[in-house]
From TrEMBL:
<keyword id="KW-0660">Purine salvage</keyword>
<dbReference type="InterPro" id="IPR000836">
    <property type="entry name" value="PRTase_dom"/>
</dbReference>
<keyword id="KW-0963">Cytoplasm</keyword>
<comment type="function">
    <text>Catalyzes a salvage reaction resulting in the formation of AMP, that is energically less costly than de novo synthesis.</text>
</comment>
<comment type="similarity">
    <text>Belongs to the purine/pyrimidine phosphoribosyltransferase family.</text>
</comment>
<dbReference type="GO" id="GO:0016208">
    <property type="term" value="F:AMP binding"/>
</dbReference>
<dbReference type="GO" id="GO:0003999">
    <property type="term" value="F:adenine phosphoribosyltransferase activity"/>
</dbReference>
<keyword id="KW-0808">Transferase</keyword>
<comment type="pathway">
    <text>Purine metabolism; AMP biosynthesis via salvage pathway; AMP from adenine: step 1/1.</text>
</comment>
<dbReference type="InterPro" id="IPR005764">
    <property type="entry name" value="Ade_phspho_trans"/>
</dbReference>
<dbReference type="InterPro" id="IPR029057">
    <property type="entry name" value="PRTase-like"/>
</dbReference>
<dbReference type="GO" id="GO:0006168">
    <property type="term" value="P:adenine salvage"/>
</dbReference>
<comment type="subunit">
    <text>Homodimer.</text>
</comment>
<protein>
    <recommendedName>
        <fullName>Adenine phosphoribosyltransferase</fullName>
        <ecNumber>2.4.2.7</ecNumber>
    </recommendedName>
</protein>
<keyword id="KW-0328">Glycosyltransferase</keyword>
<dbReference type="InterPro" id="IPR050054">
    <property type="entry name" value="UPRTase/APRTase"/>
</dbReference>
<dbReference type="GO" id="GO:0002055">
    <property type="term" value="F:adenine binding"/>
</dbReference>
Length: 178
């Protein structure tokens, strides 16, 4: 399937979670077998071209797409978790949200020093979580130069923030508005 055909599988829900927001709902893509498979193939091709040695995905939808890409390439997957979810000593990074802060954590042994990590997630909006994830993976010794997303919301500037941090950003599709 083409990326235009995949884009047609994304449902737009107006005024969710608040008035004026156009929510891009991936559950319709996830429920379409051929569309989901094609999405994984498109992302995997980009990750392979980037020299991925391991894939990292942010909780929770990054787990879906990141694991699919890792399986497609036959390489490992690193889950980037919310705090308190891993049963071992972790490393973490705190980052700012619009109204507060959040934290991401990983198993520091999940990355070999100098290993090329490609981040995969469903959507890039403001970029806060993706920037924090890149920082965390770099702290663990990974080389993070590529991030792949199914959807980019360019008006929110997240992709540009990542690029400013030395991370190339690719998305299968972009939607105007947010």
């Amino acid at each position: 399937m083409t990326t235009d055909e995949l884009k047609a599988l994304i449902r737009t829900v107006p005024d969710f979670p608040s008035p004026g927001i156009q929510f891009r709902d991936i559950t319709t893509l996830l429920g379409h077998g051929a569309g989901l498979a094609a999405t994984m193939k498109h992302l995997a091709k980009a990750a392979e071209l980037a020299g991925a040695e391991v894939i990292a995905g942010m909780e929770a939808r990054g787990f879906i797409f990141g694991t699919g890409v890792a399986v497609e390439l036959g390489i490992g997957f690193i889950p980037i978790r919310k705090p308190g979810k891993l049963p071992i000593k972790t490393i973490g990074v705190d980052y700012d949200l619009e109204y507060g802060t959040d934290r991401l954590e990983i198993d520091p042994a999940a990355i070999a020093p100098g290993q090329r990590v490609v981040m995969v997630d469903d959507l890039i909006a403001t970029g806060g979580t993706a920037l924090a994830a890149a920082d965390l993976l770099r702290q663990a010794g990974g080389i993070v130069e590529q991030a792949l997303f199914v959807i980019d919301l360019p008006e929110l500037g997240g992709a540009e923030k990542l690029r400013s941090a030395g991370v190339t950003v690719d998305a299968l599709m972009a939607f105007d508005g947010h």
